[in-house]
Amino acid sequence: MLLKDENQKTRYGTVAGGFKIATSVGGALTGEGCNFFISDDPHNVMEAESEVVRQSAIDWWTEGVSTRLNDPSRDCKIIIMQRVHENDLSGYCLSEECQEEYHHVCLPARFEHDHPHVFYYDIRLHDGELLWPERFNEESLNRIEGALGSYAAAGQLQQRPSPRGGGMFKEEWWKFCDIDEVSQGGVIACAWDLASTDSKTSDWTVRCKMKFTNNAFYILDIVRKRKDSGAVKGFVKTILERDDMDDVHVHSLPLDPGAAGKLVAADWSTEFRGFPVRFTPETGSKQTRAQGL
Q1: Per-residue pLDDT tens for 16-64?
Q2: DSSP 131-162
Q3: How far apart are CA 188 and CA 211, in angstroms?
Q4: Cβ-contact 220, 204 below 8 angstroms
Q5: H helices of the chain, where?
Q6: Which domains does the chain have, with CATH numbers?
Q7: Could you give the CA distance from residue 280 to residue 275 in angstroms, rounded to a whole number?
Q8: Contact 205, 194 (CB under 8 A)
Q9: Residue 109 CB partners (closer than 8 Å, separation 6+)
């Protein structure tokens, strides 16, 4: 039975002295202990591609939730979620980086005997068997898979957030070779993705060097660093000077819209005079732009 004065949306007290608190990822936790801490879908699916947002949920779990159990030897923490990214909270808890031990209950919509996280109490035996055919039969599941697409379906339905063979870029498309096997001639270009903070949860500043020759693309080198806004320009110049020895035809840097972006481009163009630098306006998401490959 609930207490009349403790039946708010975020806190429920019982006449037996127990209580339940509802909060959100990143919400305040200090001052309250518990016997069970249950997190239900800690990630917003629409923000799953953001490394910063994903990491903030992991930090909240490791730094905020980790000390909330009244008796860590008896009490427990529970995460209920669908997989939305390889590096989501479940991915972290299953990784070697995590210092805690979890009992993993993984129930993919379609059974896979070679699933990376087979749940040994799953009563299904044959590949493709449905988890809950009375609710999600073959027809309805096919419809959901079609709407989600292969990448999202692999995570949200199959609980392995990377489709077999890869997502947008299929595994079988990639071949590894030694540098002396790369064909001569062709064009070498570098593309940049810039960030402006150096915290451990921020995005990276990345440079990808590629070569196109004999109708094939080669990734020659990738560098990435977390730098604050004042240090990014110096980092870029260091790489420009290093790449200048490799006959790079062009370095493409993103041009942010608006007057501020033009001012930055003008300043950097002066700093990088003599290097093959081009500032390129970007439209659409990275996924949309990658379709050209």
Answers
A1: 888 888 889 988 777 789 999 999 999 999 998 888 999 999 999 999 9
A2: S-TTTS-HHHHHHHHHHHHHHHHHHHTTS-SS
A3: 4
A4: no
A5: 51-59, 89-93, 138-156, 229-243, 258-271, 286-290
A6: 2-156 (no CATH), 175-290 (3.30.420.40)
A7: 15
A8: yes
A9: 130, 131, 136, 141, 157, 158
